[in-house]
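Shape is hard to put into words, and the shape of a protein is harder than most. The fold becomes a row of whole numbers, each drawn from a learned catalogue of backbone shapes. The outcome of that step, for a single protein, is printed below.
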Amino acid sequence: MPNSKPPKRALLIVNPRARRGTGSVASAVSVLERGGLAVTEEKAAENEPLTELIRRKASSFDLIVLGGGDGTLNTAAPGLVDAGLPLGVLPLGTANDFARTVGIPADPTKAAEVIVAGSLAPIDLGEVNGHLFFNVASIGFSAELAADLTSHAKKRWGKLGYAIVAARLLARSQLFSAHLDHDGTTEKIRTMQVSVGNGRHYGGGMTVEESATADDGTLDFYSLEVDHWWRLLALLPSLRKGTQGRWDDVRAFRTTEVTIRTSKPRPVNTDGELCTTTPAHFRIRPKALQVFRPSS
């Protein structure tokens, strides 16, 4: 009898702090194993960064399956890039914006079926000051939201937590000045928020740009240059659809590199995590990872 191929070895890492991370992923693991994968779950040592766990274990595996939300992906990004292994995602977070962008089902069991089906596609990553991101990086209102939205609130309230904290922040939001350097030009702006997107979705229901994808080789920039905070209420439907670039008080363009400078350092939010400050140099990292996603 001919020798059968050994099963592919899957490194499974589940973030227990993700919104659904404490629930059972047993059914998803069963799907993976029935699909011919040898699954080994590994947990980080005490105080070990997730990316270091990946670097430590990746050489013994053929693919990585990550259970968590957008923050988990963000934290793991450097290790994932270094490992160079195909990535499967089990959405367990609050918003799961990356999964939505690439069409991975919200149900972890169905997401496991996508991994078993084996359809791989390259995706880009964004980078700001050396920090990688999957979805969107922003300065201004969204960064303040990330600072105020505690992990406890996200776990207790889910997407509603974003709305509760956002409403509180809106009342005290102020414009700030910044300089933009991109495509050989420098522009001065007064804005409430600037966002630089690699993917399409962010913030539990917002859209960077309606036609954006995570594999188009570009970054989508927009700046909310509104006079009053209540103007955002009128903009909200467009922000959800990704058509805000059509408004006169929204500056929007597509690029591969942009630098944002402010008079004093302002925090930068990447995928819901505060990771660096301005001046912020953004660039695209094309085809940085291979991800299991639906073939359609």
